[in-house]
């Protein structure tokens, strides 16, 4: 059966990065994965959580939110207590992006990665990871240029994609119409050298075989390789960012 957007089973949705999307964040990226749009902003703060103080290493943490009309019907804002889904996604983003860094070279600083879903059509968490990595690189480039951290703080690129079985067919990069009816659904995070950071998967409609799992992982490898290339192209064309820390207004 044809896919809702006419893609082949092994094709990604069109991916677009807009770097430096907001003015004030140390690193900012707008990522479009088809009709899923996520704004990723990175803030650099001096200091680390109490349990890391005095160890000379840094930390990265992530926050994730969906705007109320990012979905077909209004999603209420999470005021106060966050849902289990939100907490789980935030932890996934944080774990994935920490795998990209040598935190020992960051010094006692914290990177806060805010991922806000502007429009959702499936794959919001994987888009947040893929775009979040680019935003992290932009922020760290500013610290490297200022001589505050060495280039070795960046260890490896990281990207993520969804795969699943829909109508008996393994498919790459599921949109919402596919994700909502998938028999098997996975989110896969990988590094630039082909290692896995995380695999989240479940049998939504039926158990899957080892052969089907292998086919899905091969699709994920192919998709992530293409995403890594797109990240590299976007970063190669990145505009020059102002120095960090920013100069204070009125400074002499």
Automatic annotation (TrEMBL):
<comment type="subunit">
    <text>Homohexameric ring arranged as a trimer of dimers.</text>
</comment>
<dbReference type="Pfam" id="PF03725">
    <property type="entry name" value="RNase_PH_C"/>
</dbReference>
<keyword id="KW-0819">tRNA processing</keyword>
<keyword id="KW-0548">Nucleotidyltransferase</keyword>
<keyword id="KW-0808">Transferase</keyword>
<comment type="function">
    <text>Phosphorolytic 3'-5' exoribonuclease that plays an important role in tRNA 3'-end maturation. Removes nucleotide residues following the 3'-CCA terminus of tRNAs; can also add nucleotides to the ends of RNA molecules by using nucleoside diphosphates as substrates, but this may not be physiologically important. Probably plays a role in initiation of 16S rRNA degradation (leading to ribosome degradation) during starvation.</text>
</comment>
<dbReference type="GO" id="GO:0000175">
    <property type="term" value="F:3'-5'-RNA exonuclease activity"/>
</dbReference>
<dbReference type="GO" id="GO:0009022">
    <property type="term" value="F:tRNA nucleotidyltransferase activity"/>
</dbReference>
<dbReference type="InterPro" id="IPR027408">
    <property type="entry name" value="PNPase/RNase_PH_dom_sf"/>
</dbReference>
<dbReference type="GO" id="GO:0031125">
    <property type="term" value="P:rRNA 3'-end processing"/>
</dbReference>
<dbReference type="GO" id="GO:0008033">
    <property type="term" value="P:tRNA processing"/>
</dbReference>
<feature type="binding site">
    <location>
        <position position="85"/>
    </location>
    <ligand>
        <name>phosphate</name>
    </ligand>
</feature>
<keyword id="KW-0694">RNA-binding</keyword>
<comment type="similarity">
    <text>Belongs to the RNase PH family.</text>
</comment>
<keyword id="KW-0698">rRNA processing</keyword>
<feature type="domain" description="Exoribonuclease phosphorolytic">
    <location>
        <begin position="12"/>
        <end position="138"/>
    </location>
</feature>
<dbReference type="InterPro" id="IPR001247">
    <property type="entry name" value="ExoRNase_PH_dom1"/>
</dbReference>
<dbReference type="InterPro" id="IPR002381">
    <property type="entry name" value="RNase_PH_bac-type"/>
</dbReference>
<dbReference type="InterPro" id="IPR050080">
    <property type="entry name" value="RNase_PH"/>
</dbReference>
<dbReference type="InterPro" id="IPR036345">
    <property type="entry name" value="ExoRNase_PH_dom2_sf"/>
</dbReference>
<dbReference type="InterPro" id="IPR015847">
    <property type="entry name" value="ExoRNase_PH_dom2"/>
</dbReference>
<dbReference type="InterPro" id="IPR018336">
    <property type="entry name" value="RNase_PH_CS"/>
</dbReference>
<dbReference type="GO" id="GO:0016075">
    <property type="term" value="P:rRNA catabolic process"/>
</dbReference>
<dbReference type="Pfam" id="PF01138">
    <property type="entry name" value="RNase_PH"/>
</dbReference>
<protein>
    <recommendedName>
        <fullName>Ribonuclease PH</fullName>
        <ecNumber>2.7.7.56</ecNumber>
    </recommendedName>
</protein>
<keyword id="KW-0820">tRNA-binding</keyword>
<feature type="binding site">
    <location>
        <begin position="123"/>
        <end position="125"/>
    </location>
    <ligand>
        <name>phosphate</name>
    </ligand>
</feature>
<dbReference type="InterPro" id="IPR020568">
    <property type="entry name" value="Ribosomal_Su5_D2-typ_SF"/>
</dbReference>
<feature type="domain" description="Exoribonuclease phosphorolytic">
    <location>
        <begin position="156"/>
        <end position="223"/>
    </location>
</feature>
<dbReference type="GO" id="GO:0000049">
    <property type="term" value="F:tRNA binding"/>
</dbReference>
